[in-house]
Design brief:
single chain; alpha/beta; 8 strands; Rossmann fold; 405 residues; 8-stranded mixed beta sheet; Serine Threonine Protein Phosphatase 5, Tetratricopeptide repeat
Length: 405
């Protein structure tokens, strides 16, 4: 149903956007001969990607406010005013999605912030980043779409919905409302309408998404038509059908990668970053700190136990302590035991005991691996340490008795 894509990009912008105005001062970058205002904060950290923010139609970089400040505590971040918006100069070129992507790439080059990037896009920012990821896949470490425009919608869906009258009414209402916008905002809106009318033809030709962590947040809090605008038809049915289709498409997006999450919030309307900033921060963390189990499994498949240990050491150097636990290492160790590779399991479990020296279960598992390898004395030592840490470990107690016989 075609309307779902740009309702979020234009209509919701009008009825739900907080009043956010760009600051008059810089800092500015020179990009293709024009001044572009950027907001950078935080410091780069080895091993962690930078986080780049892309706003919705007509929205300046202040849109990301507290979210950017929070993420800047962990890594370097950048948001910016697109050319012609906020405090950035216009380059006089129509803001096609392709041109916006080119400008974003130029902004990042001028900023000196090196890839890879976790890219976070709100509304129109979602389709922009989808195209960026197709054009520069090696630069992408993760993606977060915050109530994004639906670039998978098509005219066929609106015909099947039985809500053609409502869709036409929405188009007319949006066009009337956007007519009052500034030239730069109107230019972005017209580009959105052009893509909509083409059934997002350019997006259907894009290369698949890079296989990186990808989170899509969808808001479901309903909003009525703005005062002074007439909507012809069943507005509630129109919104319900649009949401249903948007969720179906978003589910397809996240299922195209190994680590994909679709999260629906009933507590927000379009501007989730303002009503639930903690949810957006959570989504960014899912991409900044990918699933450890999956990383260790890939390491094991590529290089065995030694690769697992090295990968976990790299993770330890980057991840906050509260994101680390012995569980992923333990899972890998038992996978190796099940594969009849006790010597490799010993390497993983031994490292687990080094990384988590107060975890009784790690020593219990190490004892099991030593026992499977026929190293009874070392098994006894490991089980003894496990029981010292947890006297209620009945398995350890029983194994000590057996090994002493």
């Amino acid at each position: 149903m075609r309307k779902t894509a740009w309702t979020a990009l234009a209509f919701c912008l009008l009825v739900s956007s907080p009043v956010v105005r760009a600051a008059d001062a810089g800092p500015f970058l020179q990009v293709n001969g024009h001044k572009v205002r950027v907001r950078t904060s935080g410091a780069s950290r080895p091993g962690l990607p930078a986080v780049i923010f892309e706003s919705g139609i007509g929205t300046p970089s202040e849109n990301w406010g507290g979210v950017q400040s929070e993420i800047a505590k962990e890594t370097v971040t950048l948001s910016y005013d697109r050319m012609g918006l906020g405090s950035s100069e216009s380059d006089g070129i129509p803001p096609t999605t392709e041109h916006i992507v080119d400008n974003l790439h130029a902004v990042l080059l001028a900023s000196g912030i090196a890839p890879p990037y976790v890219m976070v896009g709100h509304s129109l920012g979602g389709p922009i980043l989808r195209m960026y990821a197709a054009q520069y896949p090696k630069e992408i470490a993760g993606l977060v779409f915050v109530d994004p425009g639906d670039y998978s919608s098509s005219a066929k869906e609106i015909a099947a919905s039985g809500l053609a009258k409502e869709a036409a009414s929405m188009d007319a209402m949006r066009d009337e409302a956007m007519a009052k916008s500034s030239p730069a905002v109107m230019a972005e809106y017209q580009e959105a309408r052009r893509m909509e009318k083409s059934d997002f033809a350019a997006f259907q030709k894009l290369a698949p998404l890079p296989n990186v962590p990808f989170v899509v947040l969808i808001a479901t809090q309903p909003l009525p038509p703005p005062n002074g605008f007439h909507f012809d038809g069943d507005f509630a049915a129109f919104i319900r059908e649009g949401l249903r289709e948007h969720l179906a498409h978003a589910n397809e997006w996240v299922r195209s990668v190994d680590e994909g999450w679709l999260t629906v919030t009933p507590n927000s309307s379009h501007y989730i970053q303002n009503s639930e900033p903690e949810l957006v921060v959570w989504a960014i963390h899912k991409t900044l700190y990918p699933d450890i189990d999956r990383q260790l499994t890939k390491a094991m498949q590529a290089g065995g136990a030694d690769a697992v240990v090295q990968r976990y050491k790299s993770i330890q150097a980057i991840y906050p302590a509260d994101r680390l636990s012995p569980r992923p290492l333990n899972h890998i160790g038992y996978a190796l035991l099940r594969a009849k590779q006790p010597e490799d399991a010993i390497k993983v479990f031994a490292f687990e005991t080094e990384a988590f020296p107060n975890d009784w279960n790690a020593f219990d598992s190490l004892g099991e691996a030593y026992n499977a390898a026929g190293q009874k004395q070392l098994a006894l030592q490991a089980y003894t340490r496990s029981v010292d840490l947890n006297p209620k470990n009945t398995n350890g107690v029983n194994m000590i008795q057996k090994l002493k016989q």
